[in-house]
Structure formats: structure tokens, C-alpha cells
Amino acid sequence: MEPGTVRIAVDLLGGDDAPAVVVDGALRALGADPDLFLLLVGPPEVADGLVAMLRPADRDRVAVRPVRDAAAMTADPATLARADSTVSAAVAAVCEEAADAVVSAGSTAATVTAAVLGFGRWPGVRRPALVATLPALTGPVALLDVGGSLEARPATLARHAVLGAAYAAVTHGLVRPRVGLLSIGTEPGKGDRARRAADPTLVEQPLPAGAHYVGLVEGYDVATGARADVVVTDGFTGNVLLKGIEGAYAMAGGPPASGGAPRAAALLGVAGTVVVCHGAARDDDVASGIALAAHLHRRRAVPAISAVLAGLNGTSHITDTEVTA
Amino acid sequence: MEPGTVRIAVDLLGGDDAPAVVVDGALRALGADPDLFLLLVGPPEVADGLVAMLRPADRDRVAVRPVRDAAAMTADPATLARADSTVSAAVAAVCEEAADAVVSAGSTAATVTAAVLGFGRWPGVRRPALVATLPALTGPVALLDVGGSLEARPATLARHAVLGAAYAAVTHGLVRPRVGLLSIGTEPGKGDRARRAADPTLVEQPLPAGAHYVGLVEGYDVATGARADVVVTDGFTGNVLLKGIEGAYAMAGGPPASGGAPRAAALLGVAGTVVVCHGAARDDDVASGIALAAHLHRRRAVPAISAVLAGLNGTSHITDTEVTA
Questions:
Q1: B224-258 tens-digit pLDDT
Q2: Which value does ipTM take for this structure?
Q3: Domain A1-123+269-300: which CATH class?
Q4: CATH number of the domain at A129-262, please?
Q5: In 3D, which of B272, B184, B194 has the Cα closest to residue B235?
Q6: What residues of B are in contact with residue A73 (Cβ under 8 Å)?
């Protein structure tokens, strides 16, 4: 546990089993981290029920922002952007400096939309990415995107390589991280049309923090970490892979001692700290999402990554500014 | 072991570590199956070395077709279609009824091309699929495509659903198999553009063998088998997922007792029995690929699947006949 008070805005209504698992996860997180404060964003009766379960001495570690409606599970951007949803209110709380970071297990699309509208995107980032950290043999592997941006465009993959390298340097403390592009073989030319187009783009892409592009890697390498510290892919493939690794650990009787597939991911590319939990999160997943958000805030990860990227911007000649079809 | 003599044409030069691992795998396969005969396709000195390692009584179980060159690891179709490569010669041996099935750990693209040219495609199939069988909690899960056809087109996914349902019925003995489309959530509308287009196509697609479409499934479900017996995806995503599950089992200290991720897959959609092994196959992977080919031939899987599909053809109104961009 790193020291330092941190205040996390928690979306009480996000997730398949909300609010029950969110309440249980919040209680776990408070029990594990004495310097953690929570801003509970959701129906006041749910928040009051949580407060009632705390020891009196801990009750001043919890504040409540009453909001009635969860973000809808919908693909409609106008609905997603509703300012009165719990996740939008959680983002607003951070903008008002009433909290340091946002955690939600609700719709990823709604959380990304609320974060983009509330925090704004970093320069050059059109599509924020969700980055998941897998504990591999040789150290952590950052896999991105795992669901923020679903289509595989070369410029997006190149931008995500930059974001992932900066993330690995700042949050995993890696010097000269190895960056790979996920494909179906390691020889140049392996992959679908999107990967064949992205590989030469990544060869040319300047990377921050002394990172270097190692070329194509495979699904196996994401689990084991053998070839790369940062693995870049589209959010569709990354999400499928992450859940497949999770299923394999379930089949194998549990994850290795180094840890299993994460069920929380950090949003990269917006000017605020946001953690998205698996929609099917259990209470310990919510607690680990809150712990990740606290860790990122204590490391000052978002401003540190932003500074790393600003150092690169003079040399970067590729930005993720394609027009959406 | 099912009874019945079977003759497998083995590509001695296919695979990253060929011919050594192919020779070792062939020896293993011969030792495990007394009714197995092999036609070794490759350099005669390699084949002769293998024969010299056999007991004299077993030497008449092996024949040799001398071929000098492996198929090139290239994306150039003209090069892939070279008739004098080992994999093309193995296909030709089956066409001449000198063997019953082909096994190669060489370039998937070269094997698919050789099989399409030599055996021809089934009616309505433009893009053959590789199907891998994962041992899940509730029985085997057929995952396709795992590398035959890399782009996600709705008509291809619909045709592969038909092929996978017929394969599960014939080779896994499943009655009314459940067919799912791999995506990033189970609610309708989840996924990238290709999945959102394919889901309604699959709802309308008549399936053989009493199969029914259960909608969207996730990576987790492929490992555990919880939602579907047949999982349809594009060959890029399927290949990444399969190798990710394999990596997770390696990390977890080994696969579950029910078995790990397969390292051999059957080619579906051509009028012949073809098994493709992982390019990084070890000797036991090659042996299990030979065993799979023998099993498929003994089950008369290819003619049986073809008959199942012929029964459907009066009602099918979607065929995989899109034009390649």
C-alpha cells in the first residue's frame, strides 16, 4: 500500500449485479486501505445502507452524491452522454475536485463517453484505450485496448502503442519497455489486413520512455510475457483474449501464484483517472478496481504519462485523427 | 482407438522445427496406433532415417513420396500453389487414393491453398475454416475459424456456423449443438461493426443437425463451454484466443485434466481430410495431429459432414460467396 489520502468516486449503479457487489466491493476496499476515502455516487438509500455497515470511526471516510439513474446499456451516444447518470456525476465530482478518480463497473461505452466529455482527451488521442495489466512470468504485461475502441485502425494502434509505452514506464516502472503488435504469428506479414497495415506504421512510430517496437507477438505471449511488456491490439480482440485467459485460469483450477487475468482496466487518453471494472464484476473485482484507481492517483500516473507524451510530441508525426466512418 | 486401417500423408517439411519434430511425431503416432500407415512426403534421406528407427516388423507401415521442397512461408498465392511442394504432393497422394488424409505443420495459407486446389471446395463455401476442439467442462467446444480465413465477414461467419454445427454433430456426436458468435458481451448489439452485422445474419441462418443459434458469447465461454458447443469467429480472433488460452495453461502450470488447448485443427470446407498443426508444433503435437486425422477418416467425417450439409442446402439462403476486396 502506498501512503497518501485518496478519494475515489464510485458508481454505485454500474455492473450486472449493482448495487450489491459495488457496496460489498467498496466495503472491502475501505477495510484494506486506511487512507482511502470514497464518494458514493448513486441512490442515497443504497449509500446510507453502506454507511450503516461501517464502524462509526470509519463513517467520515464516506461521502454521498445522490443520483438516481445508471447510465443506460446502449450504443446510442446521445443516451450515453446523459449528464444525470451515476458515471457522469462521478466524472463531474472529479472535475469539481470533490474526488481524485472514478471507478465504474457499468457500460464501458458510457464510461468512456462520460470521461471524454468531462475530462477531455489528450492531444492527438481520438480514441481512448482501456489498458489491462496481466501478471506474466517476467513481470507485468500491459494489454491495450481491451474494449475502449473496437475497430482496428493503423493510426489508432500506433497511438495506443505510444499510450501503452508511457503507461508501462510510469505505472510498472519499466525502463525501455518492449512493445509488440498482437497477431497470429511473429514473422513480418502475418495477420489480417489491419495488422499488415499497422506493422510498418508501428516500425516508424516514435515511442516514449525509451520504448522500442519488437514486431508481431501472439496470444501466447500476452499470457506469458515472453516477447513484450506492452501488447497493442484493437479493443475487440483484446477483450476476447483477456476473457479467454480468464476462462482458462478458471478451467485450470485457478490462476497462477503471480495472479490471474485482471477484471479492472485503466482508461488511457483522457485527462483524468478512470478505472473500468468487468461488467460481471464480483465484490473483490470492484475492490481491486478501487485499489487500482488509488494506485494510479498516488503514482500521479495521469499527469506523469501526460508529461511523458508531451516530451514525445515534438517528434511524433502520427496522430490518431482518422475520421470515423 | 477406433479400429480400421488408415493411411496418413505427412508433410515432413512443415513446421518451424521440421523435419526433426515431424519425424519424432510420426514415430510416436506409429507406436500408438497399430492400424496406422504413413506416407512420408519429403526428402527421401529424412524418410529413410525414420524408417531405420522402426522395428523391422513395422517398416511396411511406412511408404515414402520423395519431394525436395517445403511450401514457402509466404503470402504470395502463386508461390503457395506450387505443385512440387511437400504439402501439395501430400494432397495429390490423397487425390490418387495413395493416402486417406493429409497432416502438415507448415504454413496454414499454403496448406489451405493446396487443399482447395487439390480437393475443391464444398458447394457454397468460399473460405474454408480451421476448427479447433477445446475440452471444456461440459464437453468439447468447437472453435472456428482459428486461422483459415482472417477477415470477419457476416456471410463467412454464417457459413462457418453451418460448417461448425455439422462438424460438432458428426465428430463430437452432439445432438442439437448450441452455436454462439464470439463477441465482447452477451447482450444483443455488443461487439464491433462486423459482429453487429453478423448477429442478425446468424439469427436467420438455417443450421444443420438440429443446431440452434444462442447469440453472442465471450472469450470466457470458449474455455469453459458454458454457453455454446460451437463458437464462430474470424480466423484472426480465433487464432489469438486459442494461443492465449494455451499461454494461460502454461502459466497455470499445465492444462486441466480434461485437456489443454489443441495444437492441431481440422480444415473444413474442402472435399478431403486435412489437419493443420501449430507451426511451433512439438513431436507430441504432430502425433496428436496424425491421431486427429486418423479419427476423422475412421468416422468418415468429411463425407458425413458433406451429407449433413447437402440435407440443409434446400433451405439455406445464405452462401459465403462475397467477392474479396
A1: 999 999 999 999 999 999 999 999 999 988 888 87
A2: 0.91
A3: alpha beta
A4: 3.40.718.10
A5: B194
A6: 187
